[in-house]
Amino acid sequence: MRPEERTRIVVVGGGTAGWMTATALVKLLPGRCTVRLVESEAIGVVGVGEATLPHIRAFNERLGIAEAEFMARTRATFKLGIEFRDWGRIGDSYIHPFGTFGRGTGAIEFHHYWTRLLREGATLPSLDQFSFACSLARQGRFDHPATDRRHLAGTFGYAYQFDALLFAPYLRSLAEAMGATRTEGILTGVERDGGSGDIAAIVLADGERIEGDLFVDCSGFRSLLLGGTLDEPFEDWSRWLPTDRAVAMPCRTRTAVTPYTSAIAMPAGWRWRIPLQHRTGNGYVYASGFVSDDDARLALERAVEGEAIAAPRVLRFTAGRRRRSWVHNCVAIGLASGFLEPLESTSIYLVQQAITALIELFPERHIGDVDRDEFNRLVDLEYDRIRDFLILHYHATTRSDSPFWDYVRTMAIPDSLGEKMELWRRSARIVKYREGVFLDASWVSVYLGQGIVPDGWDPRADAMTAADLVRGLDALRGEIAENVAARPDHRAFIDRYCAMAEAA
User: Fold this and answer.
1) Are 17 and 334 a contacting pair, CB within 8 Å?
2) Quick one: which of 352, 260, 296, 320 has its CA closest to 59?
3) 501: closest CA among 33, 109, 68, 25?
4) In degrees to the nearest 10, what's the CA dihedral of 363, 367, 372, 373?
5) 354: closest CA among 367, 337, 339, 342?
6) Per-residue pLDDT tens for 267-323?
7) The dihedral formed by the CA atoms of 56, 320, 359 and 166, expressed in degrees to the nearest 10
8) Reading across the β-sheet that carries 181-184, which strands appear in turn?
9) Are 184 and 41 in contact (CB under 8 A)?
């Protein structure tokens, strides 16, 4: 393709979303586009998206990123899942694992056998003990999974916990080395074509005018192009996800560097704990209608485990998404497109999926409605299904100890979630999707972890006697425990494999 035929892409905004987008475009569409990213050092970034889902590993691999180097540069740790404390009832604790329960190889999912035994009155060990990922996490151990999925050590995946303020600069170095260009500047104006309504150019504070064929809005919550210039409506989901603020405060790590993120329920929301190599990220996600900013800040300061290394910082947000994420020749990625609170670490995943969809639907000569419609369908699907999964955590509680938990326990939920919960209660079934992020084990962990035990199960689970099932579970638990005990300590594995070059 001749240089003049290449699609001119202008990315507005840096941070994680902007530099993930720029790096992927120059790496995966070589010769088809030019990429220019505009950002200003005077405008800060959110910088608290420190926990991820396993999908980021495939994304990094496509970009040619070496895992150990990436982890050392971003001071990352491994993440085997998310621990939820005090969600169903105060005192409860369960892990949403990145992996299966049981061996994951039978015709019947493990939880059907589990449900049958529970309903028949059996006393069972915790569900965590029948997940390799959960058992590794509880023991504070880590090892790369086996490549053979038939082996117990191949039944789990993993993600990363990293310093978000180091991730974007790392990606920038890669993107610029591959040909992306960066412009320092603050956007002050947008020019649109009088006929088509497309964006023709952006104008910076110093007067520079930058033309483009495709504009990617990575300007964060401000959504300068999609929300501002194009005035795309925002769908507010706060009636189902009422948390609208977060106070964040990193601290020095005192306790073990756990291979999982923690989400600890609080009177008006929940608190995150994300252990990195050099510090621990902490934050309280709360509903401002149920607690003041000052009280939330004080609650976080009392709860953190070590000495604070920065002052508490309050972030404001509204759960929801733009009605469309691709309008005219503008694609919004990241917070400019929508926001779902960080309970299940989906922010970077949503960025990654939007980038993947954009690359797969990348217009050849001109942007067609079919490209935009399919992109918007895929993005909407991801947001809507993640929304339902997040609502489940709040709604599936028996807590009535505060006005916040009373509200979420009794609130009306989307019909789409109500249908999923009814199917589970009736027959222990999970809705099967061809697309979407959370698979069976994710839903099972929350349902059973928060005490929603189905009334029925797959009838094929009745083929074995209860005694044989119990013996089989005991053998499986012992095999998992033996395998996990042979794995290295998480911190020791990091120190050997991807230790950061220097302390913060």
Assistant:
1) yes
2) 352
3) 68
4) -100
5) 337
6) 999 999 999 999 999 999 999 999 999 999 999 999 998 889 989 999 999 999 999
7) -40
8) 181-184, 33-39, 7-12, 214-217, 330-332, 326-327
9) yes
Q: How far is Cα 321 from Cα 390, in angstroms, rounded to an integer?
A: 15
Identity of residue 106: G
**Which sequence positions are flagged as catalytic?**
79
Letter for the amino acid at 76?
A
In the chain, where are the structural domains located? 3-50+163-239+319-384, 77-158+414-490, 245-316
Question: CA-to-CA distance for 29 and 504, rounded, in angstroms?
Answer: 36
The answer to whether 43 and 186 have CB atoms below 8 angstroms apart is yes
Fold of 3-50+163-239+319-384: FAD/NAD(P)-binding domain (3.50.50)
Q: Are strands 280-286 and 269-275 parallel, antiparallel or unpaired?
A: antiparallel
Write out pLDDT tens, residues 357-408.
Answer: 999 999 877 888 999 999 999 999 999 999 999 999 999 999 999 999 999 9
Burial class of 154 by CB neighbour count within 10 A (0 to 12, 13 to 18, 19+): middle
| E strand segments, 56-206 | 77-79, 81-85, 93-97, 159-161, 181-184, 187-192, 199-204
Nearest one of 244, 418, 407, 385 to 314, comparing CA atoms: 244
Specify whether the CB–CB gap between 320 and 339 falls below 8 A.
yes
Q: Is the dihedral of CA 315, 320, 323, 324 positive or negative?
A: positive
Whole-model pTM above 0.70?
Answer: yes
Residue 186 token pair: 């603050």
Instruction: Return the structure tokens found at 168.
Output: 């974007």
